[in-house]
Amino acid sequence: MRSTKLEDSIYRDLRMEDTGMDEIENSAGEKLRSFPALSRDIFQSFYSLMPRRNADDDLSTAARKINMPILEHITQSEDYPTLKEVCEGRELPAYEAAAEFAAQTSGELDDLLSQLGGKPGAVQTLEKLEQAEKTAEDKLTALLEQLRGAPQDDPALSAAVVKAANDAESKRRQADAVNKLVDAGLAQNQAESGALIARAVSAAAERAEEVQTILGAWSDAPGDMRKTDANAALLERVRASETLRDISRYLGRFREIFAQGKRNGYAYGRGEKYALELGNDLSRALTSELAMLAVPETLPLFLRKYQHRQIKQYRRRESVYKGAGDIICCLDESGSTAGDLAAWGKAVALTLLEIAQSEGRKFALVHFSGPGRFQTDVFLPGQSSLEEKLRAAETFLGGGTDFQTPLAEAERLMREDGFENADIAFITDGECSLPEICVETLQRAQSELRFTVTGILLDEGNAGMDFSLKPFCQNIYRTSELTGEQIVGEIVLDRV
C-alpha cells in the first residue's frame, strides 16, 4: 500500500514501545518474511481516506502471492465497511484493529499460507526461481552486449550466449510452472482462506468499535482518537471492568444525543425554550420539510415521513423551569436491576452529570436499594475527576427496593448541601408504595424547596407499575412505551 510521509510518521508513533506487535511480527516473519509489511498495509487500508496500491512490479513475490490476496479478501469482507466507518482518519481505532487482525492471522498463519501458497514452501521456491531467472537474464544481457562489442566472431563467447539463453529460458519455465501451482492452490482454497480472513476482519471490527465506544463514552474529548497517554490509560481502565464496558455501550450514544440537543436548542428571551424534534405537526414543520410537497417526486417521501412521525419540526415553546437548578439522580440499584438495566441507568445518570457540568450546576448521584441503604456521590462544578466518575459508575448496592431512603437523602442535599431548585431524576424498575404521611411531607417539601421529580420506570415487558411514582413525580417516562434513546432524547431536550 502507498502511504504519505505523515501516515508513515503516525504509524511509527503508534508502533513505538508496542512490544506485543514486535513479538507477533518477529514470530510470523519467520514463516512469512512479508508479514511486517502486511501488518503495515492492514493499518493503511483501515486508516487511509483513499487507499492506494503500489504497482505489481514493485512488489516482492511474497507480497504479490500472499499479501495482495489477503488485502483483497479484507476489502471484500462484510465487515470492511464497518471498519472503514470507524477507523478512517482515526489512528487509534485503526491501529488497534490492525493489531487485532495481525494477532488473529499470525495464530493461523500455517493454514493461511497453505491455502494461499499451495504446497508448503511453494512461495519461497517461486521467490528463489524468480530471483534466479532475473540473475540469468542479467547475465544473458551482459553477454549479448559483450558479443555486440566484439571485433570479430568469438566461438567461445557465442557458445556462452547460447548457454545463458537456454539457462534463462529454463529458469523462466520453472518459475512459470511453480507460479501456476501457487495460483491453482489459491483458486482452489478461495473459500477457506476467505473464511479465515473474514473471521480476523470481524475480530478487528469489534476491536475498533470497542475503542470508539470507550473513548466516546468516557473521554473528555470523545472525538480525539489519537494514541495519547490519557486515551491509553482510559482504554486499559475500562477494559479491566465489565461494568464500565457495559455502561459504555449506552453512554457514548447518550452523549451524542446530548451534543445534538445542545446544537439544536435555542433560548428566546426569558422563560421560553425552542428546539427541533421529529413529529407530524404540520403547523410546526420546518419549511425545508414542507418544500417536499411542491415536487411530485418528493411527495411520497413527505407522506411516508408524516406517517412515521419523522418530519422535522419546531419543538413547542414552554416555560424553562425543568433543569434550571442543580441535578440529583436517584438510581435504583436493587438486585433486580443487575446487568443491562443497571448499565442503562448508570449511562442516563452520567449523561445528566454531563449536562450539569456543562452548565456549572451541582450534581449528586444517590445510589439506593433497601431501607437505609444508599450511597451519595457529589460532583461539584469543575471539581470532579474522571476516576471519581468511574468509581461512581462501578458502584452497585444490590438488595431490595425502598423509595423513602433516596427521597430523604435528596431532601437533605437540598436543605444542607445547597442544592437549589433541584431537578430530580428518579430511575427504578420496581414498585414501592410510599406511606401517605411520607407523600404529604414530600409534597410540602416540593412546594417549599421548588424542586421537580422526573420518574423513569424500567418496566419494559411489565407495564402498569407507574402508580408507585405518580404521588411524587411530575413526569414519568416508561421503557414499555418509549425506547431508551427516545427517553434520553426527551430528558436532554428538557434540560438544555
TrEMBL record:
It comes from the Bacteria. Residues 324-493 form the VWFA domain. This is VWFA domain-containing protein.
